[in-house]
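Model the whole thing, not chain by chain.
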Amino acid sequence: MPLDSRPDTKRSFAVVGTRPLRPDGIDKVTGRAKFGADAVAPGMLVGRILRSPHAHARIKKIDTSKAEKLAGVKAIVTRADFPDHTDGDAALYDVLYNIMAREKALYEGHAVAAVAAVDARTAREALKLIKVEYEILPHVTDVDEAMKPGAPVLHATVFTDGVEPKPKKPSNIVRRYEFGHGDVEAGFKKADIVVARTFKTEATHQGYIEPHACLANAGPDGQAELWVCTQGHFMVRDTCARLLGMDISKLRVTASEIGGGFGGKTTVFIEPVALALSRKANRPVKVVMTREEVFKASGPTASTSVDVKIGVTKDGRITAADATLRYQGGAFAGSPVEFGAMSAFACYDLENVRAIGYDVVTNRPKQAAYRAPGAPMAAFAVESVVEELAKKLGLAPIDFRIKNAAREGTHASYGPTYGPIGLLPTLEKAKQHPHFKAPLGPNQGRGMACGFWFNFGGQTCVSLNLNNDGTAALSVGTPDIGGSRASMCLMAAEELGIPYDKVRAVVADTSSLGYNDVTDGSRTTFATGMATILAARDAIKKLTARAAQIWGIPAEAVTWEKGHAKPAGANAGNFPPMSLAEIVAQAGATGGPIAGHHEYSADGAGVSFATHICDAEVDPETGFTRIVRYTVLQDAGKAVHPSYVEGQFQGGAVQGIGWALNEEYIYGKDGRLQNAGFLDYRIPVCSDLPMIDTVILEIPNPGHPYGVRGVGETSIVPPLAAIANAVSAASGVRLTSLPMSPPKILAALEAKAG
Amino acid sequence: MRYERPSTMKQASALLAKEKGKAFVLAGGTDLLVRLRTGFIEPDLIVDIKRIVATREIQSTAAGFRIGAAVTGAELGEHAKLQKAWPGVVEAANLIGSKQVQGRCTMTGNLCNASPAADSVPALVAAGAKAVIVGPKAKRTIPVEQVPVAPGRTSLRKGEIVESILLPKRPARSGDAYLRFIPRTEMDIAVVGVAVSVTLDAKGVCTDARVSLGAVAPTVLLVPEAAKALIGTKMDKAALDGLAKACSAACQPIDDKRGTREFRIKVAGVLARRAAQIARRRAGGK
Amino acid sequence: MSGIHVTTKINGDVVEYVCDADETLLDVLRNRLGLTGAKEGCSTGDCGACSVTLDGRLTCSCLVLGAEADGAEIGTIEGMAKGEELHPLQRKFLQHAALQCGICTPGILVAAKALLEHNPKPTETEVRFGLAGNLCRCTGYDKIVRAVLDTAEEMHRSARGA
C-alpha cells in the first residue's frame, strides 16, 4: 500500500461527492444499452439445454442419435464433450460437474445435454428427442436432514474436513469451521441471563431481472469470442478456457451491460456449454436461460439452520456468545457458512465468543454468492437473540447494542482487531433519528438490527489514456452493475483536475487489460476506484515530466494542480501553467502517447457496518405484514456518488424485506422446485414498500486515498432481523424461521392465543 | 400451430368444431400465452375472437349487463355504469394481474381457465351471473358456476365458446364486494377469495344474499349457508359471526405452496366478514 | 409452419413482418425487428420488462402473439424520446438515479408513461400500484417513485404554464 494512499480526511473534493448523471444513462433510458441477450452474430444458432427432471439420479445412458438426425440441428454436447482438464483442482472440477452432469444428476435442473440448432423451435424439438436413461436415487434437500446419519449421500468422496479424527465414512458434511476467542463456557457461567434459540432460513435467489445470456463464437483454430452478462469476464475467460482445454489468450470475453447480479453472476453456468456448442458447430451460438432455468439451474443462496446462545450480566454486558451454523449450498462444496460464522458476532465487543460452521451438500443447485453471502442468516439469528435479551433486561435494544458494540480496537470475533469503524456512529445517529421517536399506529411495532460486511479488495488493473483534446479514456475490467462507471469518472476527474464529463469510462474486454477479479465483495468503487486514482497519479507523473521537458527544467520542479502543470516554486522558473490538453497535444513531439496504469492486488478494503430501523404492521386476523417505515444508516467511508450509495442501501434493504417476508425456495417431496417463476417466488413489488430512508455516514477507510469503503452488501445484512424484531413488537409473537409468511405468523398467533 | 382470427362467432365455433388437433380460444391471452410459452400446451389451432364485434362490447340492457368475452379488465374498470351497479365484480376483475395484464385479461378467460383461485369468478357467482355459450348448433345460457367443473376443466363441449357474461339488473339497496388474500399487495394468485352480494330493505334488513368462495376447493364455491346467515338480519355482529363460521365450514382446501389448509379456513371467515361489511355499506346500510 | 404476414405501426412507423403463429410480439420486436429495448425477464407476464403499449394500452409484449399486432399501433421504449429530446420521464430517471443495472428501466418507463397519461397527478400510492407489474431488483423502487412523482409535478407545471 503506497503511503500516499492514506486518506486525507480534511481534503475538500472538487467532484467526488457530487451527483452527476451517469455516463451510460442515455443508453439505458432509451433501450439502446446492449445486455446479454441483445447481441446477434451472422449465422447465429440457438442453444438450449436439457436438464434433469430428477433431484438425484444416476445417468446410465444418453442417446442423442435421434436428435442429431433432426433437420436444423447443428451440434449436440453431453458429458462426453467435456473431458476433465481440471488437473486435480477440486473446486474447478465441481464447476465442470455443475455445468454438465457427469455420472449423476445432482439436482432438478442439472444440465444433461445441450443442442445448437437453427432456431428455437428446432432446438426445443431436438431436446425432446434426446433419450436419457436415469436410475433414480434417494434425495435430500433440507440441511438438517442432510446431516443426519443415514441421509442419502451425494458424493462418495466427501469426508468432513476440519474434524479430528477425519471420518472414515463419507457424508454430506463437507467441512467444519470454527472461529472465536476466549472461553465460552466460562463466559456463560458469569451470565445472569442466557437466551438460546434455533433459527431456520429458506434459500432465496438473487432475483436479477436479466436471465443469464451469452453469445459464443468459437472456431476450429482454437480461438473464440464470448459476449456475456457477468460480474467478471476475466473469471469467465479463465474458467471457460480451463474447462475446455483452451489457451487463455485465445478466448476473448466481452462483458455486456449486466441486468443485475447481486453475486449470482460470479461464476459460469451456460458459458462453457455455449462455447462447446459453438466449437462443435463452428458457428456462433447464443444461449439464454429461461426464468425457470434461472431458478432451477443458477446459484441461489443457502438455506440454513442456526443455533445461537448469548449470555449477559444484569447490567447488560455480554459475557459469552456461541453459535452453530449449518448451511447447505446445494450439490457441491462451498456454502457461505464460513462467512456466516465469521460475521455472526462481528458487531460486538466480546471477551468469549465462538462460531462453528458446517458446510453441507444437498440435492439443490450449487449456490452462488448473494450479496454479503452467508451474513444475513447469521445476523437474523444473532440480532433476534440480542433483541430478546434487551427486552429481558428491560433495556432499550439500541442502548443494549451501544453498550456492547464493537469499536476501534475491538478484537473481532473472526480474528482481526478493528481500526476506525462506523458501528457506534450508526447506532448513535439512529437513536437521534426522527424515525426512532415517531409514533406507531395500531398493530404496528418497531424493530432494529445491526449488520456487518467485510468488503473485498482483489486483483485489479486499469488503464487511463489521455487524448490530445484534454479528455481521458478510462478502461476498467470490472463490470458496472450499479453505476460504477460514474464513480470511476468522478475519481479520475478529481485526480486529473478536469471536469467529470471529460472522462469516459468503459468496461474493456479481456484482451485489453490485465486480469481483474469479478465485481463482488463490494470491491469495485474501492479497488477499481483506487486503481483509477493511482493510474491518474501515474499519468500525472508523466504529464509533469513532459511539461518539465517542454520547459527545460527538472521533472521534480513541476507540480500538478487543478488540471495544470505548474513550476513547483519561483526557483523552478517562470512558466504559465500548462493544461492537460496542452501537454497531451504536444505528446507526439515529447515522447508519444501519455497514459496512466495501475495494477495491483488491492488490500485494506475497510469493513462496513449498518443499523436499520423498521416499522411493521401485522394484521392480527390474517398474519399479513406491511412494512410501514424503514430507515438505513450505514457507513460508506466516503460516498463518491451519493445517489448510487443511497441506491445500494435501498436495494439491499428491500432484498432483505423480500427474504424476511415472502421469498423462499419451496421443494416438493419429489425434490423438485415448486415455485420456479416470479409468480410464486415473490420478490417485493413497488406497492409492497414504503420509501426507504437513508443516512450516509462517512468514517474514512484508512486503506483508500479518499477513505472509500464498499457499500453494496452490508445493507442486506440487518433487514431479516430488523423485520423479525418489528413483527415481534407488532404482534407479540417471535418468528424464528424465515420467511415470516402470513400462514406462519397466523399459526404463531393462534398458538399463542391457545 | 395455426392462428385464425374469424369475424363472427359462428365461424369461430365452426373452426373449433372441425379442428382435429388441440384447439384453444384466444381472447386476452394472459394465461394462454403463458401456458404456450412454458410448453404446458402445444396447440394445433388458436382462434382469436377479438375481431368479433360482440366480444368487445359492454351492453347495458333492460335485463342488466352483457359483457363480451374479450372485454378487458381495464375496460370494465372504465365503465362507470357497470362500476356503479356491480362494484364488487369490477374490483375482482381489476385484481387480475398487473396494469399490463389488465389491458388484456378478460373475465371470460378467467372463468374458462377453471382455476379455483380465479379472482373474478367468486364475484360473478355471488352476482348470479350467467354465461352465454355459442356452439356449432345452438346457443345456451348457464349460471357461471356451472362452467368450471374441476381445476382446468370446463363443461364446454367441442366447438363451444363463451360469447358473453350476463349480469342481472340490480335491485335498489344492493351492494357487492370481493376481497382476496395474497401475501404481497399485487401480482399474486389468491390464497383465499371471498365475494358477497347483498340486497337490503328500507330498514337495512338483508333480504337477499349470495356468498362465494375462491381457492378453498377444487372449484369456486357458492355457499348458501353463508347467505342464510345474513338473510333476515341487519348484518350485525352475530350475523357476521354466522357468516364467517359458515364460510370456514364450507372450505375444503389443500396445503400448497401458496398457503396451508388451516390458514385458508381461518382467513375465508375473516375476509367474508370484511367483504360483507363493504357490500352492506355499498348497499346503503349504515 | 407457414408465416403470417402482419402490417402494423410501431412508434408511428408502418412496419411489415412475417412471423410464426406461436411467436410472441416480444420475439418479433427483439428477433425480427431489432428492437431490443423490450427485455425478456420471465416470459410469463410477471416482471414487466417487456412492457409496450398496444393501441394505447399498456401490456406485456410476451403475452401478445406477433400475429395479433396486425392493424394495431405499438409503442415501445425506442419511440419515447423525440429525436434528441428525452421524454421528461427519461430525464427525471437519470436525474434521480432511478436506475442501477437498467434492465427493468425500459419497461418501467413505458409503464410510467402510460400511468401518467391515464393519471397525470398520481399519489405515491397510485404510482406504486401503477408500477406493481414492473419488477426492479436493484433500487428498492424508492428513486423510481420519486422520479415519476417529480415528472408528474414538472409536466403539470409546464402544462399550466403553457
